[in-house]
Automatic annotation (TrEMBL):
Keyword hit for Ubl conjugation: no
Keyword Cell inner membrane applies: no
Species whose genome carries this gene: Mortierella polycephala
A Pfam family the protein falls into: SET_TTL
Gene name for this UniProt entry: TTLL12
Protein name: Tubulin--tyrosine ligase-like protein 12
GO molecular function, one term: ligase activity
Domain Tubulin--tyrosine ligase-like protein 12 SET-like residue range list: 52-107, 202-307
């Protein structure tokens, strides 16, 4: 590659690097030259109780005087990192050394747990002869005795778990000699020993991987790259990487003397490196430092919150105080006065025979596919349409003409973006039982970390779910117990951290959530009496659909998607199809000691109404900023609202989704779209029939 070509291809990455270093970087990349060892050296315990990187060159390093390539020891994604580690013992060994993880401690823990487990097992067998025996023992006796597992299990129970005695009862005749018994006992003892050693080795391996998974967030860095999905759309994905021993040994400083950043080199293929260059003069023996905190975090408290994962709770008291102050403010919020919102009364009118058909323009596939009303005519032009239904964000509200209806409100991201929904609820109501405590990790990092530390200090289990601001289908969502990954996840884009529901109401032992379709219409001030607030129409479709996890719920094993998540129709998972009427019937049988479903549904409706009552009244950007009635067009929107139940069937609104895919709803109810369209505009069909499908709030 020529130098000019290098500059052209990498111009955006080079923009932040001093121009004097471009040519040395080009040369080192072209030669794959890692020459940091000629200038730098690793120290241990000087001054930190870990590795650090120091200048060994006699005359030190000069500001912008050189640039060094750093290799990446490991590139991964959080969802695949555990599997990679389990499959790569060489990588585990390298990272264990790099992260200074003690293997000896693991061995001692395994040995102690084995002793404890063996003692407990012995005590259980001797005191409870009818207790189920270990499956591995059953399989061993069945194999050695050439009998079924059921017979082997019975023999073990009869012999109080003694493997040799169980085998004797199955295979040895009373007149067999003692030598045969001795040989058998030796063989079985050897097998048992090998099994224990294998289990101990596997546990040791798992423990080391767990420690690496915990420590990796102190070493990992991230960058974005573009990929093209099967539909041809370009999207961004994030990669996490750990630099080699040189890069990973750099210490943090609020006033760093070096820049360390990723550099994606497009030369012999595409290769990711990191680069280091000094931004201050560093004398011989001086430690190289970088700023661990992302550049977008400026606030001192937010910086302290981010650095908690490196500083071992150094500023815990200060951050806990931030959380406690924030909590007091939430509790002091005056409850939102909902009576100032009114629900319009629907006039049940019929479509007049001979009247012009309702002209519909849509870019939404499920709408175009399922629209079957005789009074609705599909048109190809926005200008011709009475009703516009877009699947993408609409921006050109000023181009709409009199009489047109559009399926979006201006600024409806105030409820469809997760961080905005949380802010709206907090502003209008403070803390409410129908919404989980949520933090915007861009603007509320300090109170979030304070809350996490407060929980730890008061013995409350920390389980949090981390979500992107505006992605659906369960994308980039993780459940975490440790603080480090929660803090670091914000580095890959805007995220929220939300308290995970630890006590969900279950259906047949599994987690579930409920998807409701909600229609919002007419948000404007009451004519003639502004003190009466705003009018709006809000309708909840009576039919909802149920999304079930595939495995029984336990508050552990958070990497197991099918245990903790309910969205199964976008991956290679089994999808449970369950009609809402069947769900209600079974739910009331399973939870006969709890509320009737009519009471639960009333609570769900009230929670949904509370959200929109606040959104309609609150001005932009917090709310929808009720539309001026003088505008020529009318707005409506349908939203997918996900609800969970916790404790004694308390509803929790999980999120509000923009432009939900209602293909499944159309399959469950062939009249679904027809009812929606008619409720939006009575010209479409029979309004009396359509409104019967809704709970009008």
């Amino acid at each position: 590659m020529e130098y000019k070509q290098f500059l052209q291809i990498h111009q955006y990455q080079l923009a932040s690097i001093p121009e004097t270093l471009w040519e040395p970087l080009f040369r080192k990349l072209g030669q794959d030259l890692f020459d940091a060892g000629e200038y730098l050296e690793l120290h241990y315990g000087d001054p930190l109780d870990k590795y650090s990187l120091h200048v060994k060159k006699e005359d030190g390093l000069k500001k912008h005087g050189d640039i060094f390539l750093v290799d990446h020891a490991w590139t991964t994604k959080p969802e695949t990192s555990r599997a990679q580690l389990l499959d790569n013992p060489q990588l585990v060994e390298r990272l264990t050394s790099m992260m200074n993880i003690s293997v000896d401690d693991d061995e001692e823990e395994v040995e102690e747990e084995e002793k404890t487990g063996a003692a407990a097992e012995s005590e259980v067998v001797s005191n409870f002869p009818d207790m189920e025996v270990d499956q591995s023992m059953v399989e061993l006796v069945a194999s050695q005795g050439h009998v079924s597992e059921q017979r082997a299990k019975i023999a073990l129970q009869n012999e109080n778990g003694d493997i040799v005695a169980a085998l004797m009862s199955l295979t040895l005749h009373p007149d067999h000699d003692a030598e045969g018994l001795k040989n058998l006992e030796s063989a079985i003892g050897g097998q048992v020993k090998r099994d224990k050693e294998a289990k101990a080795e596997e546990k040791k391996k798992q423990d080391i991987v767990n420690k690496i998974m915990s420590e990796m967030w102190k070493f990992s860095q991230t960058y974005e790259y573009a990929v093209v999905d099967p539909s041809g759309q370009t999207k961004k994905e994030s990669a996490w990487y750990i630099m080699d021993e040189v890069g990973s040994s750099m210490a943090h400083s609020d006033t760093p003397n070096c820049v360390c950043a990723p550099f994606i080199y497009v030369g012999r293929g595409t290769v990711s490196y990191s680069i280091i260059y000094p931004i201050e003069d560093i004398p011989k023996g001086g430690a190289l430092t970088r700023d661990f905190v992302p550049a977008d975090i400026k606030d001192p408290l937010s910086r302290k919150a981010y650095l908690q994962i490196f500083n071992d709770n150094q500023d815990a008291a200060e951050l806990i105080a931030v959380y406690e102050s924030d909590k007091i403010e939430d509790n002091e919020v005056q409850p939102f006065d909902q009576p100032f919102t009114k629900t319009l009364t629907n006039t049940r009118v019929q479509h007049k025979d001979g009247a012009r058909k309702l002209r519909l323009y849509t870019t939404t596939e499920w709408v175009a596919t399922n629209c079957k009303l005789a009074n609705v005519e599909m048109v190809d032009s926005e200008d011709q349409a009475d009703l516009l239904w877009f699947s993408q964000d609409f921006k050109d509200f000023d181009k709409l003409i009199k009489g047109q209806k559009i399926n979006q409100f201006e600024n409806e991201c105030c409820i469809t973006y997760k961080q905005n929904l949380a802010a709206l609820i907090k502003t209008a109501y403070g803390t409410v039982p129908w919404s989980s405590t949520t933090y915007n990790l861009t603007t509320e990092l300090a109170p979030f970390v304070g809350h996490y530390l407060w929980n730890a200090e008061h013995g409350h289990r920390n389980v949090w779910i981390c979500k992107p601001w505006n992605l659906a289908r369960g994308l980039q969502i993780t459940i975490q117990e440790e603080l480090a990954p929660l803090v670091r996840m914000r580095d890959t884009g805007p995220k929220i951290a939300q308290e995970y529901i630890q006590t969900p109401v279950l259906y047949d032992g599994r987690k579930f959530d409920l998807r409701y379709i909600v229609l919002l219409k007419s948000t404007h001030k009451v004519e003639g009496d502004p003190s009466q607030g705003f009018e709006f129409q809000l309708m909840v479709y009576k039919m909802f659909w149920i999304r079930l996890a595939n495995q029984p719920f336990e508050l552990e094993d958070f990497d197991n998607y099918e245990k903790h998540f309910t969205v199964m129709n976008y991956g290679n998972y089994n999808l449970t199809q369950l009609l809402y009427t069947e769900f209600i019937e079974n739910f009331e049988k399973e939870h006969a000691d709890k509320k009737k479903w009519t009471e639960i549904q009333a609570d769900i409706n009230e929670a949904i109404k509370s959200i929109f009552a606040a959104a309609v009244v609150k001005p932009q950007p917090v709310g929808l900023g009720a539309a001026d009635k003088s505008q020529p067009y009318e707005a409506f929107s349908i939203y997918g609202i996900d609800v969970m139940l916790k404790d004694e069937c308390q509803p929790v609104v999980v999120e509000v989704n923009f432009s939900p895919d209602c293909t499944r709803a159309c399959k469950y109810d062939p009249e679904f779209l027809n009812n929606i369209l008619t409720a939006i505009d009575p010209r479409a069909g029979d309004l009396n029939k359509a409104l019967d499908a809704f709970n009008v709030l």
